[in-house]
Amino acid sequence: MPFRARFSYRVLWADCDSNRHMYYPNYFKMFDSSTHNLFEQAGAPVPELLAAYGLRGLFIVDAHAAYRAGCGWGDEIAVESHISEWKRRTFKVSHALWNGDVLAAEGHEIRVWGVPHPDDPERSAAGEIPAEFRARLDGGDDR
After folding, report:
1. CB under 8 Å to 4, separation ≥6 — which residues?
2. Contact between 49 and 42 (Cβ < 8 Å)
3. For residues 77 and 29, is the Cβ–Cβ distance under 8 A?
4. Domains and their CATH numbers in the chain
5. How far is 82 from 3, CA to CA, in rounded Å?
6. Residue 57, by phi and psi: left (phi above 0), alpha (psi -120 to 50) or beta?
7. Are 34 and 7 in contact, with CB atoms under 8 Å apart?
8. 99: part of which helix (H) or strand (E)?
9. Phi, psi of 25 (to 5 degrees)
10. What would you report as the CA-atom Rg of the chain, rounded to the nearest whole angstrom?
11. Nearest Cα to 7, choosing from 102, 71, 97, 84?
């Protein structure tokens, strides 16, 4: 069973449009923050990953959101995230955003394990995801 983490957030005035509804790009901001929280809770904070593996980044190559119910100013929301799919060089982070007990949005990010390009270290390339990192997020690592 994959490791899951929960990221909680109170919707602020600055997150909303003129109708006091959370502005749609902020859902992607919540997903990104929840991904970072997922890695942190799994004992693999992104800054440490970058240093330990010589990564240039965990680049997003695809992002998706489906809106189910509204979120607005003052709402207490929570995003539950986990790795739902692994490939050799990419992984999919799935998110469920809850407003109380209502599923308000679902989404995912597909991220690349970004390493320095072998011919030009100023550029990035997709690298192979290490087994120990995958095991940590698959729930096979003692935390």
Report:
1. 38, 80, 81, 82
2. no
3. no
4. 4-137 (3.10.129.10)
5. 6
6. left
7. yes
8. strand 90-99
9. -65, -25
10. 16
11. 97
The pLDDT, as a whole number, for residue 143 is: 38
Exposure letters 118-129 (e unless 16+ CB within 10 A, then b):
eeeeeebbbbeb
Predicted confidence (pLDDT) per residue in 80-99, tens digit: 999 999 999 999 999 999 99
Per-residue pLDDT at 11 exceeds 80: yes
Give tens-digit pLDDT for 35-79. 999 999 999 999 999 999 999 999 999 999 999 999 999 999 999
Please state, in angstroms and rounded to a whole number, the distance separating the CA atoms of residues 74 and 92: 30
> Cα dist. 108→26, 84, 119 in Å?
14, 9, 31
88 backbone φψ class: left, alpha, beta (φ>0; ψ -120 to 50): alpha
The whole-angstrom separation of Cα 23 and Cα 105 is: 13
Q: How many residues does the chain have?
A: 143
